[in-house]
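Task: complex structure prediction.
Instruction: return structure tokens for all chains below.
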Amino acid sequence: MAEINAVVTGAGGFIGGHLTRALLAEGCGVRAIDRKPLDEWYQVHEDAVNVVGDVSLRETCTEILDGGADEVYHLAADMGGMGFIENNKAACMLSVLSSTHMLLAAKEAGVGRYFYSSSACVYAAHKQVDADVLPLREEDAYPAMPEDGYGWEKLFSERMARHFREDYGLATRAARYHNIYGPYGTWAGGREKAPAAACRKVALAVLTGTGEVEVWGDGEQTRSFTYIDDCVEGTLRLTRSEYTDPLNIGSDRLVSVNQLYAIVERIAGVQLRHRHVPGPLGVRGRNSDNTLIRKELGWAPETSLVQGLEVTYRWVYDQVKAQLDGRPVTC
Ligand code: NAD
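Output:
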């Protein structure tokens, strides 16, 4: 079989770094691009062609797709956890520039498959007002009332990808990721998501002996959390499938934030006091309905939260310890 030639945008970020590694392991040729300086990429894979560039610029998109590509994975976006997206709506919406320019360049270059990373934040907020929420089906995105800022950009961009397919024949695919977590991701600085934040706070409490952690809100808000290996596998399966509408890629095991902390504490072998403080909370509950992905791909995320958090906690613990010791950290 001829080697697959792939392009990954946002490759210096969390999911992009893992996806690049998986593509290289399959024997694909990978051009990896991110606007961050190379020494800030979470993973740098020597076997890829690593490019520092800004894909919000049309000319960068044309250059990175020069010579075409069998598969394009467009992951670059300004994003973070609730603390970031609630306070940076304009920055999140500006990702529409990269979404647009990558689609235009992909159409011009005649790429084989084009994957877009959308989000569970496209779902209507009024369907997520209870902690004991009904899992979200793909059709629940309409009538549209997504997360302000970030969610609107995601919904618009996945819809634009659909119309590029319908009008121009570009073979687009879109996944709605649900809270992806794992090692080599953002764990501090304000853009981290709940699992990484929980691992960091618990590790810090263990290493400094404070005996307590801060939890935003009452901790009864619920989410499902998806391990990175499942995210990568789902992304590859969807991109190479014949299914063309947006598809959830998310775990369907609903847990509260308090339960998330309890699992991390069990892994760390401690029991901490929870100090509940005001903070950005997002919707009250969110879960993924996996009926469609099972039907269309014959597969769904399967890594248990305990398994995934064990790996993540160990990695975050090492970062926190390195930081306390004054050693360099991965991100
Ligand atoms: P991340 O922040 O770790 O990675 C995104 C990367 O994109 C960053 O390294 C950033 O520097 C880069 N980037 C941003 N704008 C760019 C530009 N104009 N040009 C080049 N690079 C640019 O985020 P992630 O968690 O890896 O998320 C990847 C994608 O998946 C994003 O589109 C995100 O919205 C989507 N997503 C992620 C989650 C999640 O839980 N992590 C959930 C839903 C959707």
